[in-house]
Amino acid sequence: MDLHGFLKALARRWPTVVVCLVLAIGAALAATGLSTPVYEARAQLFVATRTADDTTQLNQGQSFSQARVQSYAEIVTTRQVIGPVVKRLRLHTTPEELASRITASAPLNTVLIDITVRDTAPRRAARIANAVAERFGAVVERLETPRRTAGSERVRGYFSRSGPLPASPVTLGVTQEAVPPSVPVSPRPLLNLAVGVLGGLLLGAGLVAVRETLDTTLKTSEALGEFTALPGLGSIPYDKNAPRQPLVSADVHSKRAEAFRKLRTNLQFAQVDDRPRIIVVTSSLPGEGKTNTAVNLALSLAEAGISTCLVDGDLRRPCVASAFGLVQDAGLTTVLIGQARIEDVMQQAGGRLSVLASGAVPPNPTELLASARMEEVLHELAGLYEVVIVDTAPLLPVADTVGLASLAQGALLVVRAGKTSREQVRTATESLARVGVRVLGTVFNMAPAPKGDRYGAYGRYGELPAPRTSPSRGGAGAPPVARGAGGQ
């Protein structure tokens, strides 16, 4: 998946990103609200050497202090420093726990030591920092003081066994006492919010990427064409009113009606040299809109002045008759078993469109549809009409369509956007190819409506003004709304 495809996936699955973003921000705010504020107090010490006024000795003392100061910082959290502080301040904690809240650092090329204490109370943090600094200075001076041995004697008048005690070569002074901080260092609301936003976006993008990787359905007509290498004859936009108004004749100026007119035109130009007259319309699974496509394609052909016959070849779940409000009990099965002739059961749906309903549901639809009598019926219809559209059962659940499609001159494969998987489309096309059916192309059904106006200022070019009706005529001439219901 390239960057362009990933961005399109993000735009298509934006609710997932929004939900992850809201959850992450909520978690960040909850963590901020439930966290106990932590304050940080800092004291600073200066390490000096006791040397004479000689410049050489001063430089040596400076080098000595810098060399030792890194080691001094490691002593701050030892028990001999922290233990007395706990006792002196009467803290209800252990030296080890207090040491975990104390850090000491010595900036490079300096003789400074920074002591930082974290605590939930700002005043207590400052008291602990100052007490640790004081105790730390005393410990370091004691450690640096040379020990007087029992055999010490006066050497060159310096000291003897009864002389003064030796002094520490270094001294530590407090350059900055700790003061109670006014602002906690933790939690940090803005930082937590930023982390929540970033984490939510990354989580949402990750989930979208995973879902796109695992989702094998076809989202665009271009992806369908690339996958099947079949011409895409039409892309029918999703219309929430389609179940209540399955026929596009109810609104001839809608985008859906225009899409079926484009399908009709593309079908007419797709096979100019060998134009098929018997066309089956099928799909991989139920619910992809094959019946709706067959019905409205037949209507569109009839509107163009082409004599068309629509045959309901789905003998398991027939829906054509109900879409037009016609009689279903007499039709194709009646003709196949010899109880009636074609002209006896043919019904008119207006204009140049004739409908051959399914008839009674038989116990053996597969055998009937693949029979020699079915082939005779189709050829007879082809002799009476310019185009014969046959609505069939879905390919994968039952074997009815495979036998029937082999008797036709071409097939249209309906694929539902975002619903039909690649494997299902592959299996369906292979099933048709095995019986030598010529697949004329695909119809991408229930496609998402394009964002914005594709033609800009000319977007309503194809829409005609509503016809004005005279009060005396009472709106006569308006197209009737067909009865029946069906999926898109």
TrEMBL record:
EC id: 2.7.10.2
Location in or out of the cell: Cell inner membrane
Chain spans, region Disordered: 460-488
Membrane topology classification: Multi-pass membrane protein
Record field: catalytic activity: L-tyrosyl-[protein] + ATP = O-phospho-L-tyrosyl-[protein] + ADP + H(+)
Domain Polysaccharide chain length determinant N-terminal residues, every copy: 1-88
Keyword Nucleotide-binding attached: yes
Alphabetic keyword roster: ATP-binding, Cell inner membrane, Cell membrane, Kinase, Membrane, Nucleotide-binding, Transferase, Transmembrane, Transmembrane helix, Tyrosine-protein kinase
Biased composition (Low complexity): 478-488
Domain AAA: residue ranges: 277-414
Protein origin, superkingdom: Bacteria
Gene3D superfamilies in UniProt: P-loop containing nucleotide triphosphate hydrolases (3.40.50.300)
Pfam family for this entry, one: Wzz
InterPro entries associated with the record: AAA_dom, Bact_polysacc_biosynth/exp, LPS_length_determ_N, P-loop_NTPase, Wzc-like_C
Sequence similarity: Belongs to the etk/wzc family. Belongs to the CpsD/CapB family.
Protein name as annotated: non-specific protein-tyrosine kinase
The species this protein was found in: Streptomyces glomeratus
